[in-house]
Amino acid sequence: MNPHVSIILPSFNRAHLITETLDSILSQSYQNWECIVIDDGSDDATEEVVQGYRQNDARIAYAKRPQNRPKGANACRNYGLNISRGELINWFDSDDLMTISHLEMHVQNHQNSDCAATVSSANVFQQITANHIRKWDNIKPTQNIIDEMIANHVLWPINCVVWKKSALPSQPFLEELASSQEWTFHLSQLIDGIHYKIIEQATCLVREHQQRTGKDISAAKSFSTFSSRRYIMQLLQQRKMLSHPAEKGLLKDIFTALRQSIQYKHYQVANTILRYLTHQIRQSRYSINIFKVLMLAYPIYKLSGKGEKLFKI
Hints:
This protein is α/β, with parallel strands linked by helices. The protein has 2 domains: about 5-210, Spore Coat Polysaccharide Biosynthesis Protein SpsA, Chain A, CATH 3.90.550; about 220-310. The protein is about 45% helix and about 15% strand. The protein has 11 helices and 9 strands. α6 (about 180-190) packs parallel to α8, α8 packs antiparallel against α9 and α9 (about 245-265) packs antiparallel against α10. The model has no long low-confidence stretch (mean pLDDT about 95).
């Protein structure tokens, strides 16, 4: 049995890079796949480039994100899933690369297991693929994967996870998030109790560039950091799975989002976070820390720009 794999490739203005990604897909040792490029409103030559590939290989498809769906990779990923035909799903970024045996290794591991997802590692490169600058962060937990993923001790690269379509919800990604979308999706699936299998080898090459590593903090990014942590906190509370380390890690990130929203004068975001923390203080194990942030850290930092240590937990 050779399962059909749907590779879903969101893209925005990547005409200068997507050729490398498509070439790496065409070079796969496993050939039973379709690749669906979902264009997120590009105004460069992305469509022309992809259509050129499509003329030579009918397995490559091109679609545009529907106008009634919000802009962003999340909506593109969800839409791509909705129109996919494969039994296995591999979301992939349009600036990264597959090693030649990427799909083959994942398919083999699915065939030998009843898991919902197979997870491999990746190497990070800049411009020359032979020059790997480092390995991707750890993908394998030592004990509790939920606690360790919340603490960023375990991170799964979206490219390196291949899913059984039957194990996925119809809209896996929260389309309102501007960041932390992959982290939120993976944690949501783990909280639901999905079974996964780790592949020790690196099967993907992740490109490092300014767009991926930029440090600018927008209001949307601060809100997404907060909103994603609130969402995971609520899921864990509902399932009665909120451990001490998980709560501490989530609050730590929420405190950081609050501090950054004050620093960059995103006061609407700050006020939303403050309202949430005021509610959480009644039920949190860390009520004293929350009280300190509300009554001490927030006013001091807003007035003086000093006191970052007061936001720590």
